[in-house]
Amino acid sequence: MKRYIIILAALLSYSINLHAQYATKLSITNLNNALLTIKAENAGSKLLTELNQACFQNRKPKLDSKDITDQAAKSLLALWNTSSFRCIETELIEPGVITYDGFQIRNIPIFMTRASANDNYEEIVLNFTSKGVIDAVYLSVESQQYKQLLQGVNSVTDMRRRQIILDFVENFRTAYGRKDINFLNQVFSDDALIITGRVVKQQVRKDSPLGVLPQDKVVLVKQSKREYLSKLTLIFKNNSYIYLDFNEIKITQHPKINEIYGVELKQDWHSDNYSDVGYLFLMIDFKNELQPTIQVRTWTPDSMFGLNDFDNIVRPD
Asked: Does residue 111 have a pLDDT over 90?
């Protein structure tokens, strides 16, 4: 009996030490609600600590339904299937960013185990409901850029939509990381216009005079939603991990149609056998704010498209 108690005590001590070794403590500074703060801090700390332990133990995370919604847990595990990850800080002290339906904790640095050496540092954002339950985990855009995109916005409606757009962009980015074709199928309008640009290298003629060299051409290829998602399904299948990063984000509202926004961003794409950098343009329709849809998606090597190029697609009702 004494030996059994010693073994049990040793296992308990090991478990406590293991938990402490991989623990990440989250502290939230500004919610002005003590009970909500404690609940969110506990939920965030438990989640990050469990991700750390699961990463080091090479196992699937065990998520507590009291702390995270079923949909958020499902999406997080889909991202985990492409690459396990862990928080690289033992303590995080962050403000809550108030959103249209709750709040967020940003600036959470993680290490992606399957990414290449140049791509394995990421930041995630934890979205919380107004009750302090985690309802989304996204790969985030850079924090300073997030703040800049919300500065100087006077309209309450415009501020809410910009927050929804950034939330949408982060979910859109994370969808590629978790290879979520179902999400992408939902957010693209059935008649979405999808344009992909590719650079065609021009051959240099031997008799070409010095200084008169042919320029590379950009060939634009139009695809339907079905064609684009079919090709993307194959890309997801043939690549173990996809790194997608967004920078230089610009948000514009249509001058005549308040529900239409354009988002241009610089996209950095790395996969197992292909890499590129180019400019992504999305035209997003907010007629249904709870379910915004992408009406136009373009990718070109350089910045080429904006809202004014697609006035013929969406007209005022």
From this structure: yes
Q: How far apart, in whole angstroms, are the C-alpha atoms of residue 211 and residue 200?
A: 20
pTM: 0.84
> Does residue 15 come out as left (phi exceeding 0), alpha (psi in the -120 to 50 range) or beta?
alpha
Residues of the chain with CATH 3.10.450.50: 181-310
d(Cα 294, Cα 296) in Å, to the nearest integer? 6
Phi, psi of 49 (to 5 degrees): -65, -40
pLDDT at 178 over 80: yes
What would the CATH number be for the domain defined by 181-310?
3.10.450.50
What is the Cα gyration radius of the chain? 23
CA distances from 157 to 130, 153, 168, 266 (A): 19, 10, 16, 26
22-36 pLDDT per residue, tens: 899 999 999 999 999
* Beta partners for residue 264, in sequence order: 250, 281
Count other Cβ atoms within 10 Å, centred on residue 3: 7
Q: What is the phi/psi pair of residue 123, to 5°?
A: -125, 145
Mean pLDDT of 12-18: 46
Per-residue model confidence (pLDDT) at position 53: 97
Classify domain 20-140 at the CATH topology level. Answer: Nuclear Transport Factor 2; Chain: A, (3.10.450)
At 276 the three-state DSSP class reads: strand
pLDDT of residue 155: 82
310: which DSSP letter? G
